[in-house]
Amino acid sequence: MSYVGRLAPSPTGALHLGNVRTFMIAWLRARSLGGRLVMRMEDLDHPKDKPGAAAAAIEDLRWLGFDWDAEYVQSERKALYREALESLVAKGLAYPCVCTRRDVESAQSAPHAGEQLHYPGTCRNRFAGWREAYALAGRVPCWRFRVEPGETIAFDDVFAGRFEQRVAEKLGDFPLARDEFGAGYTLAVVVDDAAMGVTEVVRGDDLMAATPAQILIQRALGLPTPGYCHVPLVVGPDGRRLAKRHGDTRIASYREAGLSPDRIIGMLAASCGWAEKGEELSLASLLPRFTLKTIPKEPFRPDGLTG
Description:
CATH architecture of the largest domain: 3-Layer(aba) Sandwich
Oligomer: single chain
Number of helices: 10
CATH topology of the largest domain: Rossmann fold
Largest sheet: 3 strands, parallel
Number of strands: 10
CATH class of the largest domain: Alpha Beta
Radius of gyration: 20 Å
Distance between the termini: 41 Å
């Protein structure tokens, strides 16, 4: 089977160093194996989507030397997600839930750090359908996936190694979508990866814990499970994922300051062990140097682009 990878930016903000480092690894991984790459704009998070961000991200990526073989936009593919949701509902694996985040937090048996909360199944078998849930609760329900008691998923990550999660204990019935017709991130990425023939997903390791839920959906829909390669993030001095609090790391700001694409790519390549600090390199020139083996296991803390 030929390799198919993907680049999947979201138009919720400007492209920054952290995005580009992960995309660089994904691009090199695919091209070094003689594979194809699809570009998928994941624009389903409507409240956070910023006007013009999608076009700006594409422009920045092309400026840096990225290319791809096919292009998709998730908001144009909602009929596929609806079909997948209907299949899950028909199998009794998806149900509407009207619990708020506060409701879920208050039901926790122990404090949970981060964003992952365990859902105890409060709305299981509570409503006949989505519209009934909406009418009785007076607020928009989400769709949840029904996780079987004792459900455990394990997989071997190409970069990070073995990962195992007791989904029933860690997440419980996890959310699929906050749209009546199933246009939500968790369901959409599963449907799209299968439809686009993606054989391996390269992404940041902050999404590692979300993978078992996606594997459960794949199995429920009879879809193939791709390989996974979760790589360390770029973080600020405080060890947290890059954000505005860490200063301006937008690619657009580096362009405006007159930095070349080769300088940015060279700095990120050095962080992966493929270049010496200060080298300026094009993305394509890294192909003979590419290897996952030299990428440090810890997050990367950039010290600027001063060379």
